[in-house]
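A reminder before we start the practical. When you read a complex entry, don't treat the lines as separate problems. The point of joint prediction is that each chain is placed relative to the others, so the output describes one connected object in space. Small molecules and nucleic acid strands, if listed, are placed in the same frame. In the example below there are three entries. Take a minute to note the order of the lines before looking further.
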Amino acid sequence: MRRLTLEQRLHPSVAIRALSPIAATLITILAGSAMFYFLGYEPLGTLRVFFIDPLTSVYGISEVLLKACPLVLIALGLAIGFRANVWNIGAEGQLTIGAICAGGIALAIGEKDFGFTLFIMVILGALGGMAWASIPAFLKVRFNTNEILVTLMLNYVALLLLSYLVHGPWRDPFGFNFPQTALFHSSAMFSPVLPGFRVTGSIFIVIGAAIIAWTIVTRSFLGFQMAIAGKAPRAGLFAGYRDNKAIWLGLLIGGGAAGLAGMAEAAGPLGQLLPTISPGYGYTAIIVAFLGRLHPIGVVFGGLLVSLIANGGESAQMYLGMHSSLSQIFQGMLLFFVLAADFLVFYKLKLVTR
Amino acid sequence: MSLLELRGITKRYPAVVANDDIHLNVEAGTIHAILGENGAGKSTLMKIIYGATTADEGQIYWHGNPVRISSPSAARQLGIGMVYQHFSLFESITVAENIAIALDRKLDLESLSAEINLISEKYNLLVEPDRLLYHLSVGERQRVEIIRCLIQNPKLLILDEPTSVLTPQAIQGLFVTLKQLASEGCSILYISHKLEEVIQICDSATVLRGGKVVDTILPSATTTGELAHLMIGTQPPTTQRQHVKINSSSTLEVCQLSAAAEDHFGSDIRDVSLTVRGGEIVGIAGVSGNGQAELFKLLSGEKIHSEPDTIRINNVGVSRLNANGRRHLGLACIPEERLGRGAAAGFSLRDNFCLTHHGRNLLRYGFIKYKEADRRTSQVIDRFSVLCDGPHAAAESLSGGNLQRFIVGREIELNPTVLIVSQPTWGLDVAAAAFIRQTLIDLSRAGSAVLVFSEELEELLEICDQIVVMYGGQMSQPVSRSDADIEQIGLLMAGEGFSFQTTAQGY
Amino acid sequence: MDLTIAIITGTLIGATPLIFAALGELVVERSGVLNLGIEGMMLIGAVTAFGFAFAGYPPIVAALVAMLAGATAALLFGVLALTLMANQYAAGLALTLFGAGLSTFLGHGFGAAPLTAITEVSIPFLSSIPIVGPLLFRYDPMVYIAIALIPIIWFALYRTKMGLVIRVIGESPQSAHAIGYNVILVRYLATLFGGAMAGLGGAYLALAYTPLWVPNMTAGKGWIALALVIFSGWRPFRVMLGAWLFGGVTILQLHAQGFGIDVPSQLLSALPYVATIFVLVVISRNRIFLLKNFPMSLGKPFHPGN
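Here is the predicted structure of the whole assembly.
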């Protein structure tokens, strides 16, 4: 009799770790082509609209980068926490609070140009996200509450707080009663990298963050301590690493990155506070983090890919009349396959004869 | 005709043949021992008989008929019950529910409780059906496991190292129950590596070594020496000891240390005092659960104490320092749990080396010098003959013995002035155990103070210069090796002569 | 008086989809699985129910098909999280994303066509009693079904062997496996049940509550259901209390001005979430409560080994 059994790989090779997301992407493209075919679109042409066309113009590339920035930034922060077993699902809320803090100061300063308004906003955005993330960190350290559940709840509280502010005290008095704040002064906004394109100077923050994250994860003793304390807490305690440090750092880094991303949205493409700052970047970034196998380099590519699919969906809608929800389905499929492919990193199928 | 017969049972795992052509006969109404060292294949064999795993080759006969035991439920239907070493019980539900969950019948807790009380009286296995399991001691939990089997009227009861969690007195209580069962016609498969026990209660014994049957013998007609020889295959290796030369610059002092337990499961530490001087080995004996785990954590720095001078290393009060701070003062520790505490699973040996060596010139500006760490990890691997794929091998890919060699080597490499080690040879084969014991002796003779926690009295008698006993969170006066008397230490382990009495460990 | 009655009836109706989805998730979590994809499964249920009702099938058929659709979506999660041992949080989020996309795509042809809703059944005689009548006896059948399900789920979890097995698997899958239970199978069944219930919750939204198809019409109700499970401390009867609290707050803010309450509606809406965090803190401190109710293996993958 022959049967398939599972065998755990004790040393998953670097090659297979890197290959699995690539293989998952290829399978997603195959499955996506099949989907397009059955929906009556010509698969190859559709794939071109999805994956190639957005990259053929400077404007397209700028748009891909624009969406990739917040995704990559948040996912970099989250991945550091996830590696330490800190499950922060609350980036959406932390992003919102970051935007509120930065936006609040921009509105308070108003038309005055100090020259360093933007700098204060960057600091406040990051601090806001960190403050919001410190609630689950404190509750986890002090009362051992589950951080997944607390961060999730706080997303709603943050969104409602923003909604209250833009409907109420912060509403633009000259805004025809629309729920939105006044536009920020130009000194409170990132300027575009290239005139006429939407991607802003905040991209340099993202690049810097990626380099810092890479250093923390692969080289630093801090990252090492966090990974040990998170994944093998009793070994961490035995070695004398403070066990709560990983929880605090994991959440603060994730919260800070999300807060920054929120600030960069408000001070970038939006230029004001609206009832929704992000189209779910905080949740999509979780997917990006897994897509990148929680490695900073992987996260950068993962963020670019997800952003490409989102932009591809928009051009497919524009040129092929394809429904915009298809890019969401596409992203969902991509993550399904990535998660499925992960399995083969840690296990191998074996045909056993008995 | 035998009750149970195994013919040619073979089970292969990727790295090892766990069972190799095993033949075994268990007669009705007998207590049959399966004897062997750790790693000899005992547990795998029991899992096959209980249906928790299936053999690759061979045939099982039950009452002379060939059977296929595909699951524990199938085994139970045949009349086979099993008491695991690590119990398969659930803390969130009651005793009665824990028993109901393993029965293949409708849920009726009322009539089940009555049945439990009946069996509990008949075999002197006291439990309360309505209590939440969470509140039960280890001994009580074992009784729940045994009742869970007995309620199904088994023809064969398998017990996996049942005495490892019991006091000497409780062990005798268990033996009375087992003999009563055997006299009523229920066969018992008794898995153990403790020779005296096997000689005391077993009618026959099958000895396993390296996955193969070495011999089947009559325990009553043999000695522990002969059994040990069969089990190990060679004469047991011995350790070399030199005379103690006290080195007064290295000391571990514990002075009137008291601490409350973290939860109801642990034991409070009550007024413990102890001195270990450089050059000697002090052993802490006792049945598990009498405060050893708590004391170890207080000494290692995994738990911090508010009064700085209750624990002193080389004359410095350290109670308020964490493990890292104490390491800087010359302390090294080896916990009983290797994977997960002494070493982090999912990390390489190199990373696990950094775990305790990062303070030894392995960092530059907050970055780890990985090349240097690799080099020094390889040194430990070579010096302590750790069998592995080099410094990048994952900790969990090593066998228990090799991982212990690595952890011991890593800590010795710190050149500690004080070393604290718990259960240094748990689960190791005899050769590895002897190596570890010799290493500890050599370290003490080189001038370090060494403290050993062990549940194996023989081990302590072999390597220690002084022995103390823990009971109910208290510590006895030290007994020097030359005056040590097993009888007297056994009484101390059972609580004789301690001011504080506890019933938690009673059987 | 009429306003009070409107608020109470509105609360009971608003609580209904939450009870369905939360009860399902409660069973899933009790078996040790955390499925964050409730929102996605509800949307799939909603669009399926609407589609079938739109095509002229009776509401009961539409609701049953929606349950099947929800279970199918849960199966997708199960394959990833249970068979392939993927990270459960990521798999659940992927399901939410996928479900939102798929339902929007499937529903884009429906437009905003209204539908004959499931109508309320006025129980003869009883419904005409003043005050009590409109308060208790004039709902659509799904409201009664949701309330009836609570004692049923309670009984199944605490008084049957099946419930005992689900709970112990949630505590320690390793021990349950050692005794001989098929952990993965039980978890699959619990996950599918959770999917079916989320589908039913979605169906209620599309068939009775709104009754319209609007993309992303669940508007976070899946996440509220998740909060409810925590709020309840994993106990069925408290799910009902929590659902009334969440449902009540939603209705109350619509009528807040009528009562002269001058609290911004958003802050009122945030209240249940803050309350959930508070409850979580309280139960996290109570070891015995956690031990008895919290599935200790929640979110951790299980590999049966050889």
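Discuss with your neighbour: The CA atoms of residues 8 and 270 of chain A lie 48 Å apart. What might explain this?
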